[in-house]
Amino acid sequence: MRRVFVNEEWCLACHLCEYNCAFANSGMDDMVLALKGKPIFPRIHVEGDERISYAVSCRHCTDPICVKSCIAGALSKDGDVIRVDRNVCVGCLTCVLVCPYGALAPGPDGVMQKCELCLENSCGEPACVKGCPNRAIVYEERGERA
Amino acid sequence: MRSYAIVGNGVAAVGCIEGIRSVDADGPITIISEETHETYCRPLISYLLEGKTDTERMRYRDADFFDRMGCTVLYGSRAARIASDGTAVVLESGETVHCDALCIATGSSPFVPRFEGIETVPKRFSFMTLDDALALDGALEASSRVLIVGAGLIGLKCAEGICGRVASVTVCDLADRVLSSILDAECAMLMQRNLEQNGIRFMLGDSVSRFEGSRAVMLHGDSVDFDLVVLAVGVRANTGLIADIGGEVGRGIVVDDRMQTSIPGIYAAGDCTEGNDISLGQRRVIAILPNAYLQGHAAGVNMAGGDEVFDKAIPMNSIGFFGLHAMTAGTYTGEVYEEVNGTSVKRLFWENNLLKGFILIGSNERAGIYTSLIRERTPLSSIDFELLKTSATTTAFPREQRRKKFGGVV
Ligand SMILES: Cc1cc2nc3c(=O)[nH]c(=O)nc-3n(C[C@H](O)[C@H](O)[C@H](O)COP(=O)(O)OP(=O)(O)OC[C@H]3O[C@@H](n4cnc5c(N)ncnc54)[C@H](O)[C@@H]3O)c2cc1C
Ligand code: SF4
Ligand code: SF4
Predict the structure, then answer these.
(1) CB contact under 8 A, B365 and A102
(2) What band does B69 get if pLDDT is binned at 50, 70 and 90?
(3) Do B364 and A96 touch (CB under 8 A)?
(4) How far is the CA of B329 from the centre of ligand 3 (A)?
(5) Is B323-406 CATH 3.40.50.300?
(6) How much is the pLDDT for A93?
(7) Are residues B228 and B125 in contact, defined by beta-carbon separation less than 8 angstroms?
(8) Same fold? B4-42+57-108+237-303, B323-406
(9) Which residues of A lie inside 8 Å of B (Cβ-Cβ)?
């Protein structure tokens, strides 16, 4: 399966991926109306310090501890994509407690949201990758674990 | 063809079924389920009372699950005993279920101390099952004064779930603080204040001495008039089936890292067990949903002839009330790093180069990075622990490890 991978040497810490993510998942078609002057809740975030930076989003783990830990059955493996059913989630944050990558966080409503690779929104492929000016994140197939 | 039986129909049982099917696609599986509902998310019963979910959304798996998995579920039937070699389960109805491999996933039951006069209370409830929640739901009225005995996770979740629907909620506990099994006094006080601000009244360090109908006389002499009482004092693992045939039982059924009981061929998983807590280095009951699933899965794989070890169990909880979350994990021993800041607390505990446990109140972004350090027993000398203390971030890992995490398939 294709996943989002990081080339941390190339990340500029410009945070464009965060804005593109928030916009792609806003359901709106004007970026200014969707984002300007509002706190954003992207499903990817840039981490690092003054030396290094990189963008973290869900790894779509082959053995997802979040799915096994969700107290509501809201997280599931759909093919190889790890999804959250926001209609079922109760916002307990158990998934935040267990995800080893710090890859998911609740939205403004307290309900969990996570990267689903833009397969369900109108973008159709990860908007973060599409908008990255330096190919510091890529969407591709890499060696699967057995 | 190998046949399987599972006693219990909770999350551990579902883990077990999925574990079996990851190895054996065909062997018939019989589930013996005392409860008459399809597997539901037990932790959601308080959210049901609060109106944040409903019985349909509370399902743990979709409606076709048992069919698809080739399971026969015997609803409303209770296992009375098992054969000492694990090849048969005798039901209370007298019927016998034969199997080649058996898993005990019986969970726990509310523990009700002998309160004097308890039989005189007209409306009393437990809070463990969907039926308990539905019964309570039917009894609540806008004018109800509710007394909850027990300020642990279950009692407080119940309090949160109902407090918007009734006239008053009073919670008492013999312990001097709320959530005493997972929080220290300072953190407990933060959670208690938040609960109080949302209208819940506490009587701590005090409990019921005797009931007189709809009045509770407390140990310290006060009395509380109520319309209904919820008993949430504690739970006990359902270990009887194994104890009765001489298997090793402590507070839970003793299991090894492959979820085998002391009796070869009989497995156990979930709240009924006592397995190794790697943060403590000792066996203990870890009655949480993730553990139930993970243990069940390992049991299932091993029952079907595969080989799965689950040796990363630690206690861990994320529990929120009215928007304030407490996250806890592991064991609170060794040196402590702390940040206290208004309603936000961080305490990290470490010993012998390993993170052992933590408590986070309020702020909890990326807390799973801490949890995974405990579960994976990551040597703290291999990472930038000073950075990690102030911020849960993967920047604290060496570049090579980060390349594996974010540049490879994990
Ligand atoms: C109100 C509440 C809130 C909770 N909140 C959380 C939370 O936030 N996070 C968390 O991680 N955990 C939470 N838990 C704990 C979590 O629900 C349990 O850890 C989990 O459900 C255990 O699953 P299990 O399959 O081991 O046992 P159970 O779900 O208890 O299933 C065992 C089943 O076996 C049946 N059974 C027992 N004996 C027999 C027999 N002899 N024959 C046939 N059937 C039998 C029982 O009827 C029961 O249906 C909460 C629990 C409660 C009650
Ligand atoms: S949320 Fe975390 S644990 Fe779950 S699949 Fe994504 S990276 Fe893995
Ligand atoms: S916050 Fe939602 S998705 Fe995460 S564990 Fe809780 S119910 Fe599941």
Answers:
(1) yes
(2) very high
(3) yes
(4) 17
(5) no
(6) 98
(7) yes
(8) no
(9) 3, 5-8, 47-49, 52, 54, 56, 59, 61-62, 65, 68-69, 71-73, 87-88, 90-102, 105, 110, 142-145
Q: Which two tokens stand for residue A37?
A: 């002057």
| β-pairing verdict for A2-6 and B316-321 | unpaired
For the domain with range B4-42+57-108+237-303, which CATH number is right: 3.50.50.60, 3.30.70.270, 3.30.499.10, 3.30.70.20?
A: 3.50.50.60
Is B257 within 8 Å of B310 (Cβ atoms)? Answer: yes
* Domain limits, chain B: 4-42+57-108+237-303, 118-233, 323-406
Model ipTM?
A: 0.96
Residue with the nearest Cα to atom 39 of ligand 1?
B106
B400 touches chain A (CB under 8 A): no
Of B239, B281, B275, B237, the closest CA to residue B255 belongs to: B275
- Helix or strand or coil: residue B406? helix
Average pLDDT over residues B50-56: 97
| CATH classification for the domain delimited by A1-57+115-146, as one of 3.40.50, 1.10.10, 1.10.150, 3.30.70 | 3.30.70
CATH number corresponding to B118-233: 3.50.50.60
Pairwise CB contact (< 8 Å): B368 & A91: no
Strand partners, B335: B350
The helix, strand and coil proportions of chain A, stated in percent and rounded to the nearest 5, come to 20, 20, 60
Domain ranges of chain A: 1-57+115-146
Contact B322, A91 (CB under 8 A): no
pTM of the shown model: 0.97
Task: Tell me what the pLDDT averaged over chain B comes to.
Answer: 97
